[in-house]
Design brief:
By secondary structure, the chain is α/β, with parallel strands linked by helices. The chain has a domain of about 120 residues: 3-Layer(aba) Sandwich (Glutaredoxin), CATH 3.40.30.10. The chain has 5 helices and 9 strands; from the N terminus they run E-E-E-H-H-E-H-E-H-E-E-E-E-H. A 5-stranded mixed sheet has the order 5-4-3-8-9. InterPro entries: AhpC/TSA (IPR000866), Thioredoxin-like_sf (IPR036249), Thioredoxin_domain (IPR013766). One of its GO terms (molecular function) is peroxidase activity. It holds the Pfam family AhpC-TSA. Keywords: Oxidoreductase, Peroxidase. This is Thioredoxin peroxidase.
């Protein structure tokens, strides 16, 4: 019944995706541009989603903690430049936004893709939420994807967990990497 089932798995290389920001700067998802060594990539549904707006505004409050542990945040969607410009009027954020993810790029991330219910919702297919944390080696350390806007990670718990993972004394490996065995 599934049209595709390739999900981006923990421990795999993050795909090479380059996108523009509103100032025509180019960003590579998964590669922090500042002094950070890890990158948190948020894929959100688009400007039409009030839950995305709430989630992104909540994330802003945790930026100092994430920066303290060396994690830079970037957010992107399949929205156009104009749609992102309009959405930013309802966001109170300082982290980087890019726009224009293609369906092929969304699929390379293993995201669920939805068809708009009407033209009033949006004018293009869009991704359901995804959150990826990529380590300094370009490897997916944490992945969280959903098929609807109501299921997202708790950001405070996520930040606390990432702080614990980043502590070298904990020597915490990438989880969820055991191979699937046939017949199990």
């Amino acid at each position: 019944m599934s049209s595709y089932s390739d999900k981006l798995v923990a421990g795999s290389p993050f795909p090479d995706i380059k996108l523009h920001d509103l100032k025509n700067g180019m960003h590579t998802l998964g590669k922090p541009s500042g002094g950070a060594t890890w990158h948190m990539v948020i894929i959100y549904r688009g400007r039409h989603c009030p839950l995305c707006t709430k989630f992104l505004n909540s994330l802003e409050l945790l930026l100092p903690e994430l920066a303290e542990i060396g994690i830079e945040v970037i957010a992107s969607s399949a929205d156009s430049k104009e749609q992102l410009q309009e959405h930013l009027t309802r966001l109170n954020v300082t982290f980087t936004f890019t726009y224009g993810l293609t369906e092929a790029q969304l699929r390379s991330l293993g995201l669920y893709i939805s068809i708009p219910r009407s033209e009033q919702e949006t004018d293009h297919n869009f991704a359901e939420p995804g959150l990826f944390v990529i380590n300094e080696e370009g490897t997916v350390q944490v992945v969280d994807i959903s098929n609807n806007p109501f299921s997202r990670p708790d950001l405070e718990t996520m930040t606390s967990g990432l702080s614990w993972i980043r502590n070298p004394e904990n020597n915490y490996p990438i989880r969820g990497t055991a191979p699937y065995l046939s017949g199990d």
